[in-house]
Amino acid sequence: METEHSHRHTHSHTQTKAVLNRLSRAIGHLESIKRMVEDGRDCPEILIQLSAVKAAINNTGKIILQDHIEHCIVDAVEHGDEQAIKELEKAIDQFVK
Fold first, then answer.
1. How many whole angstroms separate alpha carbon 57 and alpha carbon 19?
2. Beta bridge partners of 4
3. From the CB of residue 43, how many other CB atoms can be counted at a distance below 10 Å?
4. In angstroms, how far apart are the furthest CA atoms of the chain?
5. pTM for this one?
6. What is the pLDDT of residues 72-94, one digit of tens each?
7. Is 32 exposed, middle or buried (0-12, 13-18, 19+ CB in 10 A)?
């Protein structure tokens, strides 16, 4: 997947399929948790499953971050695109909150 952003480099992501697969699994898992709530399952069981979804989302974020650094940020540094680095810093700050 290649997209243009406000900075000057082109995004080239090699992990798009892996990210989409992980997101699909997390969505399916979250839908099953919703059914657990609708069925009145025990709260501790639901909380454990929610924790698993949070971990899956965080791990997906790590893959996106790694892919972005390896491709987009390397390209941005090579082309002197300081804006891309600032945007990454802002995104990381939001991600780790």
1. 10
2. 10
3. 10
4. 55
5. 0.76
6. 888 888 888 899 989 999 999 99
7. exposed
